[in-house]
Amino acid sequence: MLPKHIRSVLISHVYLLSPRKTNTFWMSTGMFPQEFIIRFAEPTSVFAVTVDSYNVKHLKIEKNATQNVSQFEFVAEKGKGGICLHICFKCQRAGINKFGCVAEFENTEGHLQSNAISLNGGSVTHLRFIITAGYDHFVSVHRVSIQN
To answer: Name one GO cellular component term (predicted).
Structure first.
């Protein structure tokens, strides 16, 4: 987990993510993991998230349903992880999610990636997005759309 002063800096910069434009963006500092947190004004049911990004390879999403920003629970992940690389490579190629594996973000060289990620529809106050790997040292997030 990031130190408190760094988390607050990341939270304060989320305003750069415009709901309608992709020419403003949040950019990483070059090392992984990187994270940013979106806070809702009131508890909100979230069924899906669409992330428009560049060079993101793996993304993990966590939620929090309280006003306290310190305790999060895992919600979804997009990207390969550990044991999945060995056990179910054939399942991933076939598009089968047998072992809970998820495909990596596509490397879109020169174009934005757009990835829809299903969530469970539970009530959230905060969503934490943790980028655990990228296709380059720097990644950017241009838009996060919430389906509620």
So the answer is: intraciliary transport particle B
